[in-house]
Amino acid sequence: MPARDRLSAAFVNSAPVGKHCDGQGLWLVKRPDHKGKCAQWMLRITIHGRRREMGLGGFPQVSLAQARELAKEWRGVARAGKDPVKERERQAREAARADQTLRTVALEAFEARKAELKGDGKAGRWFSPLELHVLPKLGGVPVTELDQRDIRDTLAPLWHTKADTARKAMNRLNIVLKHGAALGLDVDLQATEKAKALLGKSRHEAKNIPAMPWAEVPTFYATLTEQTPTHLAMRLLILTGVRSNPLRHLRLDQLDGDVWTIPGEAMKGRKGATSDFRVPLSREALAVIELARPFEREGYLFANVRKGVLSDMTLSQHMKRAGQEARPHGFRSSLRDWLAEATNTPHEVAETILGHTTDSAVVRAYRRTDFLEQRRVLAERWADHVTGGAGQVVKMVGAV
What we know:
CATH class of the largest domain: Mainly Alpha
Radius of gyration: 30 Å
CATH superfamily of the largest domain: Intergrase catalytic core
Strand order of the largest sheet: 1-2-3-4
CATH topology of the largest domain: hpI Integrase, Chain A
Largest sheet: 4 strands, antiparallel
Strand content: 5-15%
Number of domains: 3
CATH architecture of the largest domain: Orthogonal Bundle
Shape: elongated
Number of strands: 7
Number of helices: 19
Helix content: 40-55%
């Protein structure tokens, strides 16, 4: 029989850096980066002709006696013909399935919905209202025991001060409860509605993002004279009327002549529309893109100097430093107001410029056009205005 119980508690307590064998495959591993008494227990087992290594925990959290008991247990699993590593993983999965806490069910619901969440799923923004405001208090509560009073007490601090955040958290909770019901758990599907009744009507008044009057846009645009990613991104944002996210993530392979095609999954606010979105580029917009090309990295036109792409905060901070109350997203309102007040653009064309969907799914199914040619004319007129043109009323010839 192989030697066993080679180590003593005193030696383990002051073991030098290195690997120390206790016998029968149990090792104490202490690396140079392990400060003080910190070390790791490791069990080496040969199963089905190959050697496996599995951690048994750290010392001093796991004592020498406990490590020996764990090693004995897993050696028994190996003698029964099972891979200890895989067996432990199987046990962990079973324990997770038995875990009915709100946190576990919420994470399952998030994973199940990722495919339909577009960028929000990838970035985790869908989950953040729960992660930040609900799970710290209720994460350990079994989802079957969650009731309206728990939800009310948790969201009450936000209900009248951060209404949009509270609304998102409530909606996410409702989805999690439905997911729990789909798993066969006995949850109260009315808990969120009951909680809303207990909380009452929110006193918070939503404020629109500050926007610059369209007549003042040319003056601001004229200040964007530097050939930097920030100035160029701001110029293209104004010229195209797109949201910040697809603008900052613009890739060169999305450009084809004077058309920029934004992938459908990158578009927000187009419920019921999954196709890509084409943006006509004015001559001014094309000139801005050419100026930005030297800053391209890994295919992204507006790359960050360190990693990734230009941040949304960078654009907002630029406007703040310039003494502007308006914010980058507000230029979409500037463009929409210009369309309404300085042109006779039909409603559906104006809304399409902003990437909004109009009418019912049935109407959209029969109306296949995205008004690209009409939008191309308007893009040039808007560019003329932004760069100091007259901004005269635009006659939409042949508009439907």
